[in-house]
């Protein structure tokens, strides 16, 4: 037997918000006329390697030490608070071009819930950019841990329980195989992978890499494709 999902839980940064272009825009603003020399794909590779280090800070405050670590290699200016500008840019990172419209369409079918590793102050800016689509929004400040920690998923289910929702009602939607798809599948969720990097030739970009790709229940390259499937009533889960 199958059933339809009632709730879509979303990763935000990388799935709905284009953090890679957001960081690039911030770096170009900081660099000014020297921005043309920046190899941004190489920057993303170095950034990705640092993002899961043991001494990392919460996100996006973690962008400050990363900026300072990478400053010499990429010729980034320091000494004027540039690392803080880089951090604060998170509140104005752009949405992917299809995010706002697709979320409006999905909102007609499901309750939408945000599950982000970002701090609340940063998520508030992202929520505004996305035009406030969420029934509920959870941040690392609420959960006390970052995905892929299973406790984050447990926390969200506990918060959804008073509304009558269980794991069996949830379709988890995300871009990151590391932070979301692998662990959600392991925990027994139905999962939808939005492979955003397909548009630029694949790879992991700024997202922590995995050795093995987890096969999702649904696999799209854009959020618009997920909304199309919902409009056609094609999203189902095992009962």
Automatic annotation (TrEMBL):
Gene3D superfamilies per UniProt: 1.10.150.750, HAD superfamily/HAD-like (3.40.50.1000)
A GO MF term: hydrolase activity
Record InterPro entries: HAD-like_sf, HAD-SF_hydro_IA, HAD_sf, S-2-haloacid_dehalogenase
Keywords: Hydrolase
Hydrolase is among the record's keywords: yes
Keyword Repressor annotated: no
Superkingdom: Bacteria
One Pfam family recorded for the sequence: Hydrolase
Protein name as catalogued: Hydrolase
Organism: Gluconobacter frateurii NRIC 0228
